[in-house]
Amino acid sequence: MSEANRGVWGVDPPQGTRMSESVQGAAAARRRGAFRRLLRNPLGAASLLLLALLVLAVALAPVLAPQGPQTASLGDAFAGASGAHPLGMDSAGRDILSRILYGGRNTLGGAVLSVAIALLLGVPSGLFAGYYAGKFDSAATWVANLVMALPAMVVLLASRAILGSNPWILMIVLGFLVAPQFFRMVRGIVADVRGEPYVDAARVSGLPDVRIVARHVLIVVRGPVIIQVALVAGLAIGLQAGLEFLGVGGGATATWGAMLNEAFQNIQRAPILMLWPGLALGATSGALVLLATALRDALEDRAGTPAAARPAERRAAGEAEAGVAGGERAQLLSIRGLAVAYARPDGTDAEVVHGIDLDVRPGEIVGLVGESGSGKTQTAFSVLGILPDGGRVSRGSIIVAGQEVAGLPEKRHRRLRGTTVAYVPQEPMSNLDPAFTIGSQLVEPMRHVVGLSRKQAAERALELLRMVEIPEPEQVLRRFPHQISGGMAQRVLIAGAMSCDPELLIADEPTTALDVRVQADVLDLLRRLQAERGLGVLLVTHNLGVVADLCDRVAVMNEGRIVETGATDRVLRDPQDPYTRRLLDAVLDDAPPRAPWRPVEARSETA
Amino acid sequence: MSTASPQHEALLSLRDVHVSFPGRRRRARTEVLKGIDLDVRPAETLGLVGESGSGKTTIGRAILGLVPVASGTVTFDGERIDTATAARRRALSRDLQVIFQDPYTSLNPSLTIGDTLAEPLIAQGGEARATRARIAALLDRVRLPADAAHRLPREFSGGQRQRIAIARALALRPRLIVCDEPVSALDLTTQRTILDLLLEIQEETAVAYLFVSHDLSVVRTMSHRVAVIHEGRIVETGEAARVTEAPEHPYTRTLLLSAPVADVAEQRRRRARRAAAAAAESAPSPDC
After folding, report:
1. Do B240 and B259 have their domain in common?
2. CB nearest to B224's CB, from A215, A573, A594
3. Which residues contact A446 (CB under 8 A, 6 or more apart)?
4. Residues of B in contact with A16 (CB under 8 A)
5. CATH 3.30.1390.20 fits A362-384+409-585, yes or no
6. In chain A, N or C: fewer CB atoms in 10 Å?
7. Domain ranges, ordered by start, for chain A
8. ipTM
9. Which of B61, B115, B222 to mutate to probe the A interface, most A CBs <10 Å?
10. Does A132 touch chain B (CB under 8 A)?
């Protein structure tokens, strides 16, 4: 992939046309990369080979076929395979191989025609509607919806009655019928891409719209369109064959569907006649579907999404190695020698947390500070037992309120969550289900976990919302998540976390998504809850100001290790570890404000 | 509201700028900017600080022509640009550039860095050899290795991607760059290096910045002057030291007191002052 792209930059195209060439070159290079992946996939290679052979055979029909498709010798009707006629003869004494080859021209040609028309209609209109939106979009979407609502088979039968039996005309109609599929897909993708900052950046760069579409939009649309082409071609072949089979097609020309029809009429006498056209249709449709699947895999690889890690089996790691050295263990949360590892696709492990010790005592707020990728969230997730697929606690011990949770089966871990350990996430909005009211999202867990009646749970929910200082709690209970602000949503989540009276609260960047004024309020709330209920809190954050505001102690994490632990005041005032110092140096709190502006001329004189 | 001193002509001026977005369904349009006045002088950084939904990003987008201005004027170098035609807009991109917040979405994932950087140069009719040389110089300027041109964005970290975005903005040697939360998505240590890079570039090229951020401490170190925006209005403008050390408007004061500092004792004092201010606020306030 990258070698291919380097080639693009290595060559020196003629001036003036550089950009478009380099775009095409890059696109070609990417396509080559995807193509190579496609060939490496056995399904992709096989289906592509089969389709290529079919197309080749059909294209070379005049050379390969023993005779014309309509040449009949009635005396040879139903004759079996012979040297001159390897597939035998049909009911009218015509050579089956010749008819398959010539018929394929009509069948495949018809599919190509339909797809071409659908592409011509659907893709440009989809691009235009998605990019510019507005009235054209509304009108085109309306038309597309209307066409999609029509049952294709009925329309085709009707157009056969009106426009005559020419199979090509029917395929043109089919093209019109499937065009909305392309339109809707392209429009949706373009509308998404349209909002991307890189498209805005291209506009600010002074690129005209046509070039923006060619450069930034077509690339994104290309993959899905190619996949859709394979699917629609299969659909067109199937529909066409269906029509011919029903006898709706011309009947005069040889097609696979017409052959099936003819074979079906003689199914009692020579059932073997069904085999060849059926095989040709089945193989073509099957190859197209498989090709589409293989294409999707090949093109999606391009997007660089890492292959999904296989879920590793949870091992009871803690039991074996519990009791690693590390001083006296805290009562509420005590982590010793914790390592978190992710299974790589090749079976080896990637360790992201390399054996850390951490304690939270009852009623204590401990900050876990680090930059992205430091492993702080992985640590929090290990305590909660909610590591993503593929991740697991590979060694060490985590004791929560006296219970070892490393290697704990999911079922027993779940019992701890909510009642002993509760969790407040970073993104309040994405952690509320938009389809349910705040009330039902607070009430349901309490009914299931604590076993309260509906009425009791509703009263408790109200009480909780009052506790987190939400004004007019009765009304908030009836609202949906989109009707409340981010700060309010975070309060609701804190209320939810408190609903089953936990001893330990794990808050993962609980104020990062909030504005400073709201952040200050939420920090006040956490402080109050901690004071009133003696709650222990593990606060994961990157913000040293938040740590200074709230935490009794702080642990600084870097690259999967805790580099420094201590009382917040001591660590912030007198950092011992070089990384902590670097982190504190980057804080701009004490940086002086910038000096007032001076005119440029004056500046250059003094310089 | 303070404006540029008369003897130093502003490079960019906004006067009474209103922007509104169409309401959903049949609801009324929501006014996002309610009469904005701003000036940015050559080689000056004007910091624009506000919370989410305050309209700070919309100001940048209105200047760049990415959202239409409903009323009021945007003047750049003496020319009115809010009414510029599409062709004139494209030409203006020589002078007006942007750096977006999210370095992950502001670069097209399927274009190489070289192709991304070539984009503004080619759009303005640059020729091949000069373009390639310029790209090499730009990469060098933002301290990325020269072979970065052949690679794709996904091979770079957030900080490196933001360097690429800066290089793209610098490509045409603009006179003003709208920096829309350029370091908000970055880690603390990376943030510092990007800010230093922006300051260095300003010293070298005398480019002006409109520096949009929600973070007062970042804005204070970056900006000669600071404007505070709240609910679509500028509530306070002034020299960075004045606004951040002796704020006049109660909103600015709350904003300052709400931002936590990484010092336990100082933060405790801030908290107490904030609580006192909140108590005072609950009594009817005399300001607008």
Report:
1. no
2. A594
3. A452, A457, A460, A461, A499, A500
4. 127-128
5. no
6. C
7. 49-66+87-302, 362-384+409-585
8. 0.86
9. B115
10. no
